[in-house]
UniProtKB/TrEMBL annotation:
KW Protein transport (keyword) present: no
PROSITE patterns, per the entry: STAS (PS50801)
Organism expressing this protein natively: Nannocystis exedens
Keyword Coiled coil included in the entry's annotation: yes
Classification lineage: Bacteria, Pseudomonadati, Myxococcota, Polyangia, Nannocystales
Coiled-coil ranges from the UniProt annotation: 198-246
InterPro entries: Bact_StressResp_Reg, STAS_dom, STAS_dom_sf
Name of the molecule in the record: RsbT co-antagonist protein RsbR
Keyword annotations of the record: Coiled coil
Amino acid sequence: MAEQDPSITVEGVEFSWDIERGLMLCWGQPVVLMWTESTMAGFMSGLQRILGTERFNLALEGSGRESTEGEWRDIIQKLPTVEEGLAFVGRAMRTVGLGEFELVELDREARRIRYRVKQSWEGIYQRALGVDWGTWSIAGKLAGYSERILGVPCQIVQTSFTARGDAFDEFEAMPTEQTYAARLAAIADTEAATREDLRSALARVRDEVRERQRVEARLRDEIAERQRVEDELRAKLELIERQEQAISELSTPILQVWPGIVALPIVGPVDGERVARMTENLLARIAQTHARCVILDLTGADALDETAAASLLRIVGAARLLGAGCLLSGISPRMSATLVAINAPLAGVSAFNTLEAALQSAIRNLG
């Protein structure tokens, strides 16, 4: 260490700085200085979030216990009495900012020890955070001292808390059958059991996921099969519709026999559904060809009853609405009787024995 590096002794505690190496030392050992209410509070809060309060406190207690070995050997045992040694360590803790502790009661016969800590660093940072996790680092240190004093495993019970607003932290040490190592083992066993429970739970979840995946795969296959069947049915229905359309067109062909003249040969029975289809097709053809004359050829039609005759007249009326006149051809004597019987309004509708005669008349009229 360079001669200019500063050093100071406060209440028997030696502080020094190795400026060149960037070190602060206490009794020759490197130390670090942190703001308790900000830096240290944030550091400890992060550890608590990771570990959980129980494991966090157990870890701090363990670190406190481990820190007592060198203090007991190098300081306390070298002083005339344990009480003097603890008093010196208490003042040293105050000097380095850990908080000042004092031995309040030491009853070896009753095997009971009480400690009091003022301004503990743990209480300070916990007040800053607004939490109360207990003063377990210092508690671990006091437990380590107590076990060496009484010669038996000891547990520490904190009875007052500066984090809760008390004036000081107070602790009572007493013998226990459960050692710190046993408590650690219990935590480890609990964690092992928890891990095993988690493994079992995860295995069940994986099994459920696999079963769900199998069900989903089966459902996908069923949906795909249903879709295939629906597609086939749809294709068949479309084919049937096309066939019906083709049959309809074949059964009621609309022929353009001359410019401006179309003929609708009616073959077979005349019913309401067929008349509606013929009317729709005829009107579309009239609009498409701009026909001015329509020849309804009944040569191949079955005998008309009153309903069929009325339907036939609706075709004539629909064609007239589009500006096309109508001629009838191939009317049998029986059809004529039916039309007369229903008093059919055939004014302006010419009738011919044959399609040829009707066509010749239509051509003359258009010419």
